[in-house]
Amino acid sequence: MSDETLPWDEDALQRLEKIPSFVRKIAKAKIEKVAREAGETRVSAAFMEANRAKLMR
């Protein structure tokens, strides 16, 4: 797995900001991991919504 972060769409970043600050870093890493596994090259709000169940595990 790459240590580089994926690019994020502005709407996805806005959603990320709504996650409590004390878990935001962990949540961001998890979202990017799931996105990479799905073959995504960037994180979008649509991806986050479509994969909500995977992201909550």
Structure description:
With 57 residues, the chain is an all-alpha fold. It has one domain: Helicase, Ruva Protein, domain 3 (Orthogonal Bundle), CATH 1.10.8. 61% of the residues lie in helices and 0% in strands. It contains four helices and no strands.
Features:
globular; 4 helices; mainly alpha; 0% strand; 57 residues; single chain; 61% helix; Helicase, Ruva Protein, domain 3
Provide a brief overview of the structure.
By secondary structure, the chain is an all-alpha fold.
Q: Residue ranges: pLDDT <50 for 5 or more in a row?
A: none
N→C terminal distance: 19 Å
Number of helices: 4
CATH class: Mainly Alpha
CATH architecture assignment name:
Orthogonal Bundle
Order of helices and strands: HHHH
How many structural domains? 1
Gyration radius from CA atoms, angstroms: 10 Å
The fraction of residues assigned to DSSP E strands is under 5%
Shape: globular
Query: Could you tell me the mean pLDDT?
Result: 93
Assembly context of the chains: single chain
Largest sheet: none
Q: Please name the CATH topology.
A: Helicase, Ruva Protein, domain 3
